[in-house]
Amino acid sequence: MSYFFKILRFSIPYRGYAFLNIFFNIFYALFSALAYIAIIPMMQILFGTTKKIYIKPTFQGLSNIKSFLEDFFNYKVTQYLEEDIGSALLLVIGMIIILFFLKNIFNYLALFFITFLRNGVLKDIRNSLYKKTTTLPLDFFSEKKKGDLMARISSDVLELQHSFLSILELIVRDPLTIIFSLIVMFSFSIKLTLFVLVFIPISGGVISQIGKSLRRKSERVQNEQGEFLSIIEETLGGIKIIKAFNAQEKFFKKFTGSTKRFFNFSNKLLNRQNLASPVSEFLGILVISVLLWYGGLMVLIDQTLNGAIFLSYLGLAYNILTPAKGISKAFYNIRKGDAAAKRVLDILEANDDMEDSTESIYIKNLEKDIRFEKVYFSYGKNNVLKNFSLQINKGQTIALVGPSGSGKTTVANLINRFYDITEGQLKLDNIPINKIKKSTLYELTGIVTQDSILFNDSVSNNIALGNPKASKEEIMEAAIVANASEFIEKLDQGYDTIIGEGGSMLSGGQKQRLSIARAVLKNPDILILDEATSALDTASEKLVQNALENLMKNRTSIVIAHRLSTIKKADLIVVLKQGRIIETGTHIELLKKDSTYKKLVQLQTF
To answer: Is the dihedral of CA 454, 459, 461, 463 positive or negative?
Structure first.
């Protein structure tokens, strides 16, 4: 139940719709009871037991309102009976139609307003999940599969609609329907009503027992759904490799294994879920059967109950059983929805250890330098940087070289604060990086990676990603600086061309130049180039290299590269090995020594 109340907090902005739902549900419940009372006069006319009243009754106060209403109605029916029995029947039937019409109108209005609440809650949960997902540190995503995250945002939220949010319709309507019906039933027969109340909790308890294991079963189904969505995501992302290595059968077996487990788990869950409806219906018939026996004795033998009233009483009893089953089903659904709510709340309540503190400050520009002071960093137990110290002055170009796994990309990730350092200090203008607002860091930095990350949008929107307010002229100027304008203008729709998922319509060199144009337009103080040319052919590399040189002018740059052409003009080259700096210097200085850098240049292995 704790998960249920945590999810309900999302309904607070829509409380106006909730109040309207409650208002109309009150009238629905009231007219639901009155509609069955209206059946009594018709039964009395048919059986010839109508209490005839020839003198118009007078109102004698609220304490006698029940007797007054009965006598007044019987007075009207008596008048019609004296004239024409058909007219009396029409009067009674017309009243029944009006009451049932009002009942259903109020039911529709109650459902109309709760719809806005339900869909609003779903919208806000999805929005909160998406926003939380984009703000969580990268550590979180290394522990979660993409497909599982997608399942939580889509199918788990949908499960909340079918379980938790469907209960909102029942919270007011069904209890009020039971209360109003019981009030009328007690007015008919206290003894018979107490007899009914003994059986209703028993049926509710039986249904509750059925739902006890639903949370565990539902959680297994949802986890497995996340698993096969992850396999789909991996397959679509690596389809070229799967085909090239003829691994279709391997991935098919992996996928069918997951869907088979999903099949088995779903069968167990649905079979338990399907058991509730026939059991509740049988228990309802059992209660009505006992009621027929006990009430029949009161009508036929004791004659303490009128036959017409007893038929109306049966309708009211049924009017109680339906919402009683609904309430039982609601608790049943809460158990089922607990698993989905838990998976959703796992994301919404995930701790962000890198969240900005109240002391975090905003800095507009890099004024002096970036300093690593005896920094240590590790991914889990894997130490990546050890006693790393480096000063990068404003406007300086620093190249990081070394074999794979030496910690080059980690240095760049720490400047972006994608991860927090384990030990030591990392400062920008002598301010510890954890005291600077993360949004500031993202504004200060621009990044061009080996894998050009582009989106299924227009060329213009991809370039303007970091500066959405840029004009068309500014976008075109950035493309010129990045040597991208020539190929862009040859596209079918120029800057308005949709480039496909991941820029699939472009070549590797074109995608990279588009990434550079994006960085140019953002105009960051700190530029990070992570293997920006390593995946390109010679012709593309030359164009991209010229674009990078334009981009690095008068800018603090950290260059990670395996190609000499990218780093030989750097102000300082830093050679790393196993997370430590082993030598520094310019390209010329390091070549004059018998350095590791010189050997790497000769072998061209970096």
So the answer is: positive
